[in-house]
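Running this now, will post back.
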Amino acid sequence: MKRPNLKSWLIALAAVGTLSSCDAIMEDRDDCPTGLYVTFVYDYNIQRADMFKDHVGGLTLYVYDESDKLVASKTIGGSQLSKYGSYIHFTEGELAPGHDYRLMAVAFQDDMLSANGAKYRVTGNNIGDQWKQFFINLDHEPNYVVDGARSITRAAANNYYVDWSAPLDTLWHTLATYTTPADSMPMTSYPSMLTPAKTDYTWQRDGSIKSSGVERVRVVKDEPTYATMSLIRDTKHLNITLRAIDNENAEDNMVKAEDYIVEIVDNNSQLDCENNLSKPADTLVYRPYRQWNTSFVGTDQVASEQAAHYDLMFNRLVYKNASVQDDKYAILNEEDIAKARNAVLLIRKKDTGEIIFGINLPYILSSGRTYQERYYHYQEYLDREYDYRIQFILKGGHIDEIQLFLGMHVHIIPWATRQQHEILQ
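Update: finished.
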């Protein structure tokens, strides 16, 4: 029989000592985990999979005391977020044990403050500030200059433009916080090995929330406190295609992006500490940060075609009154835009300003839910989904058909332009 050498015995003894030292020597806990350990998860999406490692590029965790005063914050990013189980640790010297703390996290995909385009700017995030003083504001201006030449002036009071020279950074906010008792965790000094809890947060049909999340986390003296924070993505992306088919005049099948103005109008310039929209007086106008054309040269049997494409990004989309039938109507004129409570998607002819399509945006996007996705409340679906594609079929210069592309599914919604409001069914 081969006898183990001295080196093998020492390694084995060290391993046993590491696992048992926290219980065997209660007076000396230098090698034991204590304080607050916070891990993060982003699985509140339509795939129900944790995408935190692959999507989030930088995160700041804010900690508030029992009077909701900011007492600590830490930021991680880059290589620290390149693996699952990334965590932030506060020692007992940084957060006094025996107290209940509120946790709030804000994350981005990139550092966009030095880049072109509109920025998300955080206020009320200094030590000593109150939780209710925290806001995230999206840049917007009453006048916006494009390419240093063409300028767009505010058309109505409180109507502002979001700089569309570049895509928005991706913003995540706090959804829910979960705690795990220390005695249910494996005995280890490596909190990064902990598996984040699966998000349990559901909108009910009556608009209420069901969740096992906690409002505050208690830090226990001489013991580790484990918390997992679930994030919600606020920034949305929309790709729009305009395509004309079956027109008798071949020239009418050639759609050019520069012939149309595509925009989203919404009151969503500011998010508060609870990720709610605030400051409704500022109406934002979003336009594409990219637009382009694609062409197809046909044959005798297949007609030639040119399609227009637009990419837009916008702040959190909230269905403000999903149960009100009257707000599902089409938007046919400027007066309807002013009266709309929800975000509005508009397509105009550039030369005349005529609206050829306008609709309640959260309504039309939520109309594309699959059978299984229809179990989600309207708002939960809009919060989970973040990447939309819509194709509009033009005929005779007006919208004839709408196709929603969500995941692998294509949803076709008939559309007809009439003088009165038409409800989409």
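The longest strand covers residues 171-180. More later if anyone needs it.
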